[in-house]
Write a structure and sequence with these properties.
HIT family, subunit A, 5 helices, alpha+beta, single chain
């Protein structure tokens, strides 16, 4: 039911023309080309490209797709990828996430986003780090479950171990700290576990779980 309605207005869904493409496939050059084209036309407002890869990433439909979602007002909600990574500014996440910040050399011809031939290798390198974080063997050639967030300033990949514990479902928005629940009942598991603990269980935890009020 939640898939019938936008999570924000406007909230875009980009699907492949080929209905046989599946959500457990990694992003490819066509995906990044489409994402850059759409994001580039929405440059008056900050938007994010979001991707849930695999059932454990929190995806709820198998036809391969990406979301283009408006970034929240920074005065009301600060995105953690802006505040972690190189030169850690004190933000400590309960789960592992791999952030690549774009430099001026990676953005060419004045574009807001790096070209696809630069984006794709960066994505693959972050995927390799995700494989290692999930302790995947070299013989396992499956795509690791992960979330992707693309912004004009950075690309983020979050390795995923599960879709969330005990009914506390988590997709890419949840890993950003934007938790969408369609009822008070759906909030129950989040309140029982504590949000940081839910995200640690869904991702690859960093340190020990802490009890939360």
């Amino acid at each position: 039911m939640a898939n019938k309605f936008p999570g924000a207005r406007p909230h875009y869904l980009l699907l492949t023309d080929d209905g046989y493409r599946r959500q457990f496939e990694a992003l490819d050059s066509e995906d990044f080309t489409a994402a850059r084209e759409v994001l580039g036309k929405l440059n008056e407002t900050r938007y994010l490209m979001l991707f849930n890869c695999g059932i454990k990433s929190g995806c709820s439909r198998l036809h391969k797709h990406m979301h283009v979602f408006p970034a929240p007002d920074p005065q009301e909600f600060k995105l953690w990828p802006d505040r972690v990574g190189e030169g850690d500014r004190g933000i400590k996440l309960p789960f592992k996430a791999f952030v690549h910040r774009f430099d001026d050399k990676e953005k060419q011809n004045g574009d807001s986003y790096p070209p696809v031939d630069i984006l794709l290798p960066i994505y693959h390198s972050l995927l390799q780090k995700s494989r290692a974080a999930l302790s995947m063997s070299d013989d396992d050639r499956s795509v690791p479950a992960h979330n992707v967030i693309l912004d004009k300033n950075w690309l983020v990949v979050v390795p995923r171990r599960s879709a969330g514990p005990d009914g506390a479902g988590v997709n890419v928005l949840g890993m950003l700290g934007i938790i969408l629940c369609d009822s008070e009942e759906a909030m129950g598991p989040w309140m029982e576990w504590g949000p940081a603990n839910v995200l640690a269980e869904a991702g690859v935890p960093v340190g020990e779980r802490k009890e939360e009020e």
